[in-house]
C-alpha cells in the first residue's frame, strides 16, 4: 500500500517497533492486584498479557465484600478496572475504594486505572468526574493523540482506541496528560507521579468482551455520539493490532522493566 494511503495505527501499518519494556523479571514473584467491579467481570486482555509473561493475578471484587489490602508490599502493583458505576456514586464500597487508592499512591507502588479506575484516581486526587455537558458519549473507536510527555515515555501510541463511557475527568493539579482525544473528552491518558497511570479507553477489550458489551449494553449504542454495533467490529479488525502492541509495552512500562539494547535486538 502506498504510504499516502496508509492509516496510522491500522492493520495495514504492520511494522512493529522494537519492544522497550518487558514484564519478565526473574527476581519478582509477587502478584498484581486486580480490582474488578462486577461479579462476572474479567481482566480481559490485560490478564492475558500478564499471565503470558508469568505474572500472577490476585483478583478482588469489593462489590462482593472482598477486602483490599492495607499495603501493597506483597503485590507487584495494582490495576483498578472499569465497570457500570460512576465515580460519583455513593455506594459504601465505591467510596472506600476511592479512599483505598491512598495506599498505592502513598507507597509509590505501580498503579493503573482503566476507565472507572482512572476516574476514581482523579476523584481521589481532588479532580472532577462528570458527563459531557451536551450529553455526548464515546462508545466505539475514536482517535487518540499522544502528547510530548506521552511520547517521551513510549513513542508508539495507537491512533484509534476503543471507548465505552459517558463520563470523563479533568486534570487535578500535578497530573500529567499523556494522551488526548477530541473536544468532547479531551483527557485520555494520565500520569500521577512516577508510578501511577490512568487511561479512559479500553485496551483490555477482547473480542468476546466486545460481543458481550454490545449485546447486553445495546441501549448505549443509540446514545448521542455512539457508533453502531457493526462499526465496533469493523473498527476492531482495523485498529486492534497496534492497540495490543501498545498494551504489552504499557504494562511493561508500569509493572516491568526497560530492556537493554542487547535484549531489544534479540526480541
Layout of secondary structure:
Layout lengths: L20 E2 L9 E4 L8 H9 L4 E4 L16 E4 L11 H9 L1 H6 L3 E4 L1 H9 L4 E3 L6 E6 L1 E2 L1 H6 L6 E6 L1 E3 L5 E6 L6 E6 L3 E4 L7 H10 L12 H27 L1 E2 L2 H6 L1
Parallel strand pairs: 2-3, 2-4, 4-5, 5-13
Antiparallel strand pairs: 1-14, 6-10, 7-9, 8-11, 11-12, 12-13
Can you characterise this structure?
This protein is of the alpha/beta class. The chain has a single domain, classed as 3-Layer(aba) Sandwich (Rossmann fold). 31% of the residues lie in helices and 21% in strands. It is built from eight helices and 14 strands. The protein is globular, with a radius of gyration of 18 Å. The two termini are 27 Å apart. The model is unreliable at 1-14 (pLDDT under 50).
Quote the CATH topology. Answer: Rossmann fold
CATH superfamily: Class I glutamine amidotransferase (GATase) domain
* Unreliable parts: 1-14
CATH architecture: 3-Layer(aba) Sandwich
* Approximate helicity band: 25-40%
Spatial shape? globular
Structural class: alpha/beta
How many structural domains can be distinguished in the coordinates?
1
Which CATH top level class fits? Alpha Beta
Rg, rounded, reads 18 Å
Along the chain, the helix and strand elements come as EEHEEHHEHEEEHEEEEEHHEH
The total strand number stands at: 14
Task: List the total number of helices.
Answer: 8
Order of strands, main sheet, comes to 3-2-4-5-13-12-11-8
As a percent range, the share of strand residues is: 15-25%
Average pLDDT, rounded to a whole number, is 93
Distance between the termini: 27 Å
Largest sheet: 8 strands, mixed
